[in-house]
Amino acid sequence: MASGSQSLVKYDTKIQVSTSLKGRGKSPRKIPGKPNVPPDKAQIEDVLNSVLPPRESTEDGQLWVQYVSSTPATTQDVIKLQEQLDTLLEARQARETGICPVREELYSQAFDELIRQVTIICTERGLLLLRVRDELRMTIQAYQTLYESSIAYGMRKALQAEQWRAETDVKIKTLSEECENLKKEVEQLEQEIEDIEINERDREEKAAKLHYEEVEFRKKTNQRLKENLEAILATPNK
């Protein structure tokens, strides 16, 4: 956490550690403890510093360190903490529901401040709260990982569905064109069948007409021949 950022955790005034940053990185730098601290309070501060490490900052090439406060909290401090939490939630426009990094950060700071207050009163209780905090963070991280995995899975499925839909649209278009072509072919065949039926009906009508005319002609011919024969038979022989 940057020292310049506003935090709900209560820290002491910054202490200058070094007037120059030259040579940093050549050897491990150890942050000195607070001077003139009674042994019993020093033990509490050691626990606090292990739970909530000091914050470092640089200003004008100088290194500053800021230890977490070992001053016990009063009832007013707790009420003020709650008010600050509500104010920061509103100021930073934290979402009230769902996943919100801002809300998570602010509540984490508030919980760290409560751990600080409890640790000063009872070190063992503070360490137990620290375990609870770490377990909660691991649980939240697990849920975030699961959420991200589900989002990735959902995205993959959405892409697959989009690809399947595109392929299906192509198949539908192809089948629709085939159906349209087959429909035209069916219409063409039906028209050919209709034309054949008409032609066949006309041919049959013409054939029937010719047959009728031929029959009539033969009847008339037979009738004339019969009349001629009768006339010949009726004529007396001389």
UniProtKB/TrEMBL annotation:
ATP-binding recorded as keyword: no
Region annotation Disordered: where it falls in the sequence: 19-40
Coiled-coil ranges (or none): 165-206
Pfam families in alphabetical order: Ax_dynein_light
Any one GO MF annotation of this record: dynein heavy chain binding
GO annotation, cellular component aspect: axoneme; dynein complex
Record InterPro entries: Axonemal_dynein_light_chain
Keywords: Coiled coil, Dynein, Motor protein
Compositional bias annotation for Basic residues: 23-32
Family statement drawn from the similarity comment of this UniProt entry: Belongs to the inner dynein arm light chain family.
PANTHER family in UniProt: AXONEMAL DYNEIN LIGHT INTERMEDIATE POLYPEPTIDE 1, AXONEMAL INNER ARM DYNEIN LIGHT CHAIN 28
Name of the featured protein: Inner dynein arm light chain, axonemal
Species of origin: Stentor coeruleus
